[in-house]
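SAMPLE LOG
Freezer: B-3
Tube label: C17
Construct: single chain, 71 aa
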Amino acid sequence: MNKRRQTTDLECLTRVGRCPTCAQVVRFTFVGEQHWPPQVAKAAGLGPLVHLWVCSNCQTTLTETAAEQSA
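STRUCTURE (predicted):
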């Protein structure tokens, strides 16, 4: 049986926006998900699943919320 990892739609996504770290207009590429225990997510005001994006210029990793604000 082939155990190749399934590619999700998010893994093929890129977004354009201004990076808050390097202040350049860049392409953000989806790099994965961060899973938080429910009690930690609630205390931080986050959902239990956070999507992560990386800046094409400075390689800063941003949460989906930060990437959306930059777009």
